[in-house]
Structures are given as C-alpha cells and as structure tokens.
Amino acid sequence: MRRIFTTSLLLAAGCLMTPAMAQNDSATTTPWTAEKANTWYAEQPWLVGSNFAPAYAINQLEMWQADTFDPAAIDKELGYAQDLGFNTMRVYLHHMLWEQDSKGLIERMEKYLEIADKRKIGTMFVLFDSVWSPFPKPGKQPEPKPFTHNSGWVQSPGADVLKDPSKYPVLEAYVKGVVGHFKDDSRVQIWDIWNEPDNPVPQYKDVELKNKNELVLPLLAKSFAWAREAKPMQPLTSGVWVGEDWSDPAKLKPIERVQIENSDVISFHNYASLEKMTKAVESLKGYNRPLICTEYMARPIGSTFDPVMGYLKKEKVGAYNWGFVSGKSQTIFPWDSWEKEYGPEPPVWFHDIFRTDGTPYRQEEVDYIKSLTGADKSTTGTKSADNMTTK
Predict the structure, then answer these.
(1) Distance CA 374, CA 282 (A)
(2) What is the DSSP string of 169-215?
(3) Global pTM?
(4) Pairing of β 318-321 and β 48-51
C-alpha cells in the first residue's frame, strides 16, 4: 500500500506550494492535486520514448535555429521512433531561441509537432537545463570535439544570465510565451521546467559559477510559477536525479524540495542497475503521484533496456532513455571521454539506439523494445521513414 507523505509543505489535498512561490505575487495557480494528476495519467498510454536531439545537432541551438533546423532529418529519425513503438520524445529548447526570434521559434516548434504527431508521437518539452557548457552563444555552433560525450551541449540559462537578475524578464517572457502558445495543444504531453538544476558539471568546474545553486533555487520556483500563469492543460515537472532515495521529504535538498513539491507528476533520472532503479521507484511511490523516468540507459554501468525498460513498463513508470540516433552529440561515448581518450567507436556504446543510417546498434535491443511496445518486429525504421519523409 502506498504511503502519502505529509509535511507542513505537503498539503493534505495534494496542492503544493513552496515558500518561494507563496511570496511570488505572479504565482496565480497551484500544482495539480494528486487526484487530478493520477486521473490524467490513467488516461495516458504507457509513456515510452527517448530524449531526442537529431543527429545533425550538437545542441539545442543547432537543432532549432532557422539556418540549421531540418524537418526532413527530424521526420526520418522520428520514423525510427514510430517503428519502435515509441509514443513520446523528450525535446530540449533554449531561451536564447526565443530572444533571437520568438516568432520563428514558435513556427519551428509547430513544424516539429506536426511531424511528431504524424508519427503518432507526443512531446515533452524541456524549458531550461543546467548541464554542460555555461556559455551558450547563438549562431553557428562549434564542431564536436572528437570522440567526446556532449562536447557542445549548452546550459539555459548560461552563467551570464544566471548571475544577472536584470536579464530574468526575458526568461519569464520565454516561459510564458512558449507555454502560453501551446497550453491547449494535445500534441504537447508534459512540460519539463528544468533539467538537473543543481548539476555541478564537473567537466566545466573551473568556469562554473560558484554560487550556481543559490541562483538557480529561486529561479526554479519562479519558472514553475511563470508556467502555471499560462494555465497549461499539460502537467509540469522537474526531475530529481542524485541518488536513488527521495522517500523522506525532510531529507530532500532545497532544490529537490522545490522540484517535488511543485511537480504535478514526479520525474527522476536513474543511470544504474535494475536493483537501484527499483529502489528509486519505490522511494517515490509515497508521493502518490504518477512517476516518469526521464533519463536512463547507460550500457557500461548496468543501465540497460533489458531488464530496466521491462520493469518500468510493469510499474507503468514513464520511460525516456537517453540518446536515439548517434550524431554530433556523440553520446555513444561515456562521460569519462572528457578525461580518457577513445577511438572512433567505444567498445560498448554508452547511449543511443541507431547509427546515423538507421541501422540498429544492437538488433536484439530493438527486438526487445518492440516486444514491450507491441510494435511490428518486421520494420526497422527505414521503410516507413522513407515513405513519409517531410519535404
């Protein structure tokens, strides 16, 4: 039987608010009740898909900017996802795209959603991200550093904006503008407010802001409030990601508390064995809300489709593995590729499912995924993609 946690900040009805939100005059709504969240989730299929950045993009900016946005490539790759039986993808945005060309960003998001919907795939959009380079720059993006995991991914907001509150209005405009435009759009399934907001990014430890967490904490609460002001029909979330035990609200770190207490549906990351994934899921059940794992699957460290994905299905925990088609993000290489030298292809791929031409890295994995999604095992992605490519 599930426990329902109660603390001074966990209201009996399931409507949660942090002190930061309570003090924010712009916070006009509160999180969904647990009952509303569970009713919404009961109407969803088992949410299964990948974190998606097309192979041509080294980061969020290159995916979405007008001169590099490639609908045909996106359509082809989402064809692979459709053939796997995936019904959702988690897709990152960036506030600089709004600042650069808000109208164009909305138009390109509309195009993306049109393609995904044709493929019967919904979308979880990620608004902010505290991982990798703290110095994003719009325009032409750098080429990948050879054989290095996510050598060009960028944070949103970056250090320059994060440390300057006078620049926060553009973040507010971005959140309200994007969420407000798509607030009644059924093609958008969930809004992920902020990815790993307290990630220290050790690869950039020499240039990261020393007080990054102190700056992110209030901004995270404000970002939830800004999104709620738009009154979206979709749930909001931000995933906890450190460790496997979030069962005791009194032991949550401040950022974890804001994440969990403001999320309509609870999301989390776990790149570990089935045993640790099970512990993570069990630790979150007491919040009595839908659970979604928004990042998992790192083969060399024991997070594999078989058996982790099967367990998540059995528990009806949403499942978004990291990585889809191998490309400029180079996430076939492990995190330690920043310190350790690798050749053109690592002994075992860290993330990703397909090579750039749509060939599966491991056919047995694709067959296992299809066995869980009920997809036709005779297809590989290429056939349907060729038949439906957007011009």
Answers:
(1) 26
(2) HHHHHHHHHHHHHTTT-TTEEEEEEEESTT---GGGTTTS-TTHHHH
(3) 0.91
(4) parallel
Beta bridge partners of 192: 126, 237
How far is Cα 261 from Cα 239, in angstroms, rounded to an integer? 11
278-291 pLDDT per residue, tens: 999 999 999 999 99
How do strand 318-321 and strand 291-295 relate by DSSP bridges?
parallel
Q: Report DSSP letters for 38-50, one per residue.
A: HHHHHTSPP-EEE
- Other beta carbons less than 10 A from residue 169's beta carbon: 9
Per the prediction, the chain carries an average pLDDT of 91
Nearest CA to 269 among 255, 254, 281, 285? 281
Joined tokens for residue 283: 């630790």
Report the residue count for the chain: 391
Beta-carbon contacts of 312 under 8 Å, excluding residues fewer than 6 positions away, are: 277, 281, 293, 296, 318, 319
Nearest to 59 by CA among 173, 160, 145: 145
Per the CB < 8 A criterion, the answer to whether 176 and 229 are in contact is yes
HSE (side-chain half, CA atoms, 13 Å) at 327: 20
The answer to whether the CB of 243 falls within 8 A of the CB of 272 is no
Closest residue by Cα to residue 126 from 78, 179, 162, 67: 179
The residue-averaged pLDDT of 39-59 equals 98
What token pair was written down for 3?
A: 């426990």
Dump pLDDT digits (tens) for 127-149: 999 999 999 999 999 999 999 99
Q: Over 90: is that where the pLDDT of 379 sits?
A: no
pLDDT digits (tens, 9 = 90+) for 180-221: 999 999 999 999 999 999 999 999 999 999 999 999 999 999
Structure tokens at 384: 């349907």
- Among all chains, which residue has been given the structure tokens 């400029």? 328
C-alpha distances in angstroms, 386 versus 18, 80, 177, 184?
Answer: 49, 10, 35, 31
Whether 227 contacts 24, CB under 8 Å: no
- The angle formed by the CA atoms of residues 66, 188 and 155, to the nearest 5 degrees, is 55
